[in-house]
Amino acid sequence: MKTAAPGGLSRRRRRQLSLGGQYGLFIVVVVLVIVLADWSTLQRNFANWDVAKGLFPEVITVGLRNTAVYTAVGFGLGLGGGLLIALMRLSSVPPYRAFATAYIEIFRGLPLLLIFIFVGVGVPLAFPGTNIPGGAVGQAGLSLGLAAAAYMAETIRAGIVAVPKGQMEAARSLGMSYPRAMWSIIIPQAFRIIIPPLTNQLVLLCKDSSLVLFLGITLEERELTKFGRDLAGQVGNTTPIIVAGICYLLITIPLSLLARRLEARQREAR
């Protein structure tokens, strides 16, 4: 039997009324925003079509292309470094474990901006005459890779640990050495498990590539954020920044959808 709350209304009815009130309040707020906002001023300053047209094709051929390149290089270095750090973290050799633990804690704790400054300014000062190969691409990739390796190391380690121990035991019983079993049996299975979180990490690196502007890059090396800020300052309008943000979404939304799809497939496989 349903119990009636004070006032003669059942709990279900009270929940319905509360939910209806929340929906009503939300609709009122949306209507007020639509009615009271100065849409002509917003359109002129944030969605000026004449300004937006002037950004093409450079926003794609320079900004979007460089963002994709910086992200890809950073992800590749982070994945390779993360795998190495993860294996050191799981090693039976104490110095390896200590180094891996310290690396993970330090680079996960430092703001990414400090890593960019260290790579762009600290390395040339510490090693005079030394240039990081690849110019801005090398510097950006190294900065992103150093940070990404710390996060990916923990993700990869979790994937390796998630592989049933019987897999390693079966491989060793067939005469495989530990390194061969790890590379041939364990790591491939671990990567199938961690593909979704690695995809999410790729999305984060894409957004973090905006910090490349602190490296003192040239006009042809600008990524989307730097490209949008420079053009916004030139034309005195924020439309270039909005266009740059939309270009980020062209990369991040498909990757986010891919990560969700992969996670759903893994849940179904279980």
TrEMBL record:
<dbReference type="InterPro" id="IPR000515">
    <property type="entry name" value="MetI-like"/>
</dbReference>
<keyword id="KW-0472">Membrane</keyword>
<feature type="transmembrane region" description="Helical">
    <location>
        <begin position="241"/>
        <end position="260"/>
    </location>
</feature>
<dbReference type="InterPro" id="IPR035906">
    <property type="entry name" value="MetI-like_sf"/>
</dbReference>
<dbReference type="InterPro" id="IPR010065">
    <property type="entry name" value="AA_ABC_transptr_permease_3TM"/>
</dbReference>
<dbReference type="Pfam" id="PF00528">
    <property type="entry name" value="BPD_transp_1"/>
</dbReference>
<dbReference type="GO" id="GO:0022857">
    <property type="term" value="F:transmembrane transporter activity"/>
</dbReference>
<feature type="transmembrane region" description="Helical">
    <location>
        <begin position="21"/>
        <end position="39"/>
    </location>
</feature>
<feature type="transmembrane region" description="Helical">
    <location>
        <begin position="139"/>
        <end position="160"/>
    </location>
</feature>
<feature type="transmembrane region" description="Helical">
    <location>
        <begin position="109"/>
        <end position="127"/>
    </location>
</feature>
<keyword id="KW-0029">Amino-acid transport</keyword>
<keyword id="KW-0812">Transmembrane</keyword>
<protein>
    <submittedName>
        <fullName>Amino acid ABC transporter permease</fullName>
    </submittedName>
</protein>
<dbReference type="InterPro" id="IPR043429">
    <property type="entry name" value="ArtM/GltK/GlnP/TcyL/YhdX-like"/>
</dbReference>
<feature type="transmembrane region" description="Helical">
    <location>
        <begin position="181"/>
        <end position="199"/>
    </location>
</feature>
<feature type="domain" description="ABC transmembrane type-1">
    <location>
        <begin position="64"/>
        <end position="259"/>
    </location>
</feature>
<keyword id="KW-1133">Transmembrane helix</keyword>
<feature type="transmembrane region" description="Helical">
    <location>
        <begin position="68"/>
        <end position="88"/>
    </location>
</feature>
<dbReference type="GO" id="GO:0043190">
    <property type="term" value="C:ATP-binding cassette (ABC) transporter complex"/>
</dbReference>
<keyword id="KW-1003">Cell membrane</keyword>
<keyword id="KW-0813">Transport</keyword>
<dbReference type="GO" id="GO:0006865">
    <property type="term" value="P:amino acid transport"/>
</dbReference>
<comment type="similarity">
    <text>Belongs to the binding-protein-dependent transport system permease family. HisMQ subfamily.</text>
</comment>
